[in-house]
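Hi V.,

You were right to ask for the full record rather than a summary. Here it is.
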Amino acid sequence: MAAMSDYERRLQDRVLRPLVHPGRAWNITFAGLLVVFGIGLVAYAYQLRNGLVVTGMRDRILWGLYITNFVFFIGISHAGTLISAILRASQAGWRTPVTRIAEFITVVALTVGGLMPMIDLGRPDRIPHLFLYGRWQSPILWDLLAISTYLVGSVAYLYLPMVPDLAIARDRLGVTAGRWKHAFYRSAALGWRNTPAQRRLLHRAMTIMMVLIIPIAVSVHTVVSWIFAMTLREPWNSTVFGAFFVAGAIFSGIAVLILLMALLRKVYHLEEYLLEKHFVYLGYLIAAMAAIIFYFNVSEYMVTGYKPNEAVDFQFNQMFRGQFAGFFWFYLVGGMVVPVLIVAFKRTRTIRGIVVAAALVAVAMWIERYFIVVASLRIPLLNYEPRNYAPTWVELALTAGAFALFGLVILIFVRFIPVVSMWEQAEQHAVEEGHRASPAVRPALPDATPGGGA
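Predicted structure:
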């Protein structure tokens, strides 16, 4: 077996270090998020005991923060599997250090997002009824099946490229990682020895999952949009909601990916691998998606505003100059125009500038989900005064707990799993440097030199 290069050894030392020594920042952050999550659990126990009457949801505005969070988390899940699969399929070499983080986000966001409708049900004993008495005509049942399929596929798509890295952790860390953690690496690596046969099988499995996961990911947020579009509400009465939701999911997903990349880069000192070009390229994607989202908004509001009825007039008034006007104009300007301007100018097209743009997009897209849910439900269906919705402390605590849970699971992942795909990164570096990677980290390519990993 050929000796590792200095780059490969340095890469492994840097990426594997957090698995053994997470650092003080990890411990403090984990403790803080655990407290917030605990408050969310207390709020849920209170809601479970007293019912949904402790929330601000009523018969006229029957959805609130819970469904807003559901749509947001399912949306950002597209950051990983969909973006990663597209970049893999296009053989974009720069995506190598980004894909693992993106795939983390997918699995965690799907897990947290899937909990929100269960909380919104009020009574968890209703959950089995979806399986036992669900109606196939209902988009809610379609959504349940789509998200379940997507979660299973995303876990597999995350796990497959991790196998060689888990084997590296098994061999490099040994018992220094802890007895039970070493046992985890040994079992999770599935006996990986980097043989030519194993590389061919891994490459084939990754290719199959890459092809399957793209249509599955698109179908998930399309079905989420149908829950709204197939309901008799004027602002939801749109045939382009599917494309609008998928584009918005990719938009917000890229933003969250950039934020997490910047955080991990700073905390774990990954500056050598997460370069400025990775942020700039993702910034270009943000700018492109911002233009697409802006086009959808202009098209939607222009068409409906050209032939208004009472419901459209009500919607336009509350969005453009009413109680939601401040947030709405922030969504349009801060969430779309400003990020494009940040990316457009070289002076602001830096890591810091791209992170600011991503933060604006993430906040704006959560607000947009709130508009879709709450603002639309405020429109009277009959001749009565519209009701307002104000979330209670229970809903706010559960929302904070959901975001804390998202952070906690990410922290647990980076405590056990390498955040950068070492074998892919080493191979990409070898390609860029014009020489072959060491057999210890050579990727699963079908045309690898025979016997190179034996």
